[in-house]
Write a structure and sequence with these properties.
There is one protein chain. With about 180 residues, this protein is mostly beta strands. It has 1 helix and 11 strands, in the order E-E-E-E-E-E-E-E-H-E-E-E. Strand 2 and strand 3 form a beta hairpin.
């Protein structure tokens, strides 16, 4: 198998002084006949606004080959935010993209089932430690209507994370009170 990896780095400093930098990548996989057979990618984003609120986001994009093109079918991000007052927050964000047979985008929603195997630096920016952290949200009973571990192959073992919300956030203020 042969492939190619493409990197892009974008830095933006807005007129008010807010700063954003995103480093993203996509890796394509081809067969011996030079046909596209797979893709994977992700990004890291660092931001700081004019009030000193800083955040770091790690994103993994999961692709499918549709009509000969790599299309993002799921995107999952984990963002850590720190405010100057000492409050902190962590957010999980997901998007699920649906396409017709010709590769035209037909729908975007927040219903995602992400296999545990996708939480690997070989697959994107989120790794096993991030998955373990998200699993604590499930075991702690946070967001029971929107976040669950699922057994997709019915073998009695959870193997995927089911998320049915576009953004879930947990945090605490400087005194340890939930946000």
């Amino acid at each position: 198998d042969e492939g190619s990896r493409h990197w892009e780095s974008v830095t933006v400093i807005s007129p008010d002084g807010a700063y954003t930098r995103t480093d993203s990548w996509i890796e394509y996989e081809y067969n011996a006949a030079a046909q596209l057979i797979g893709a994977k990618g992700g990004a890291n984003t660092w931001t700081e606004d004019i009030f000193g609120v800083m955040s770091v986001t790690k994103r993994t994009d999961i692709y499918a080959i549709i009509a000969g093109e790599a299309k993002v079918i799921h995107s999952i991000s984990l963002t850590n935010t720190a405010n100057l007052d000492g409050s902190i927050a962590t957010s999980i964000s997901t998007s699920h993209y649906s396409y017709d047979d010709t590769g035209v985008l037909i729908d975007v929603d927040s219903e995602s089932v992400i296999p545990f195997s996708k939480f690997s630096l070989d697959e994107g920016r989120l790794d096993e430690n991030d998955l373990d952290y998200i699993k604590t949200w499930v075991t702690d009973g946070d967001f029971p209507l929107y976040l669950a571990l699922v057994d997709t192959d019915n073998n009695g073992m959870d193997d995927a994370l089911s998320i049915s919300a576009s953004n879930l956030t947990i945090g605490e203020d400087v005194f340890g009170n939930p946000l």
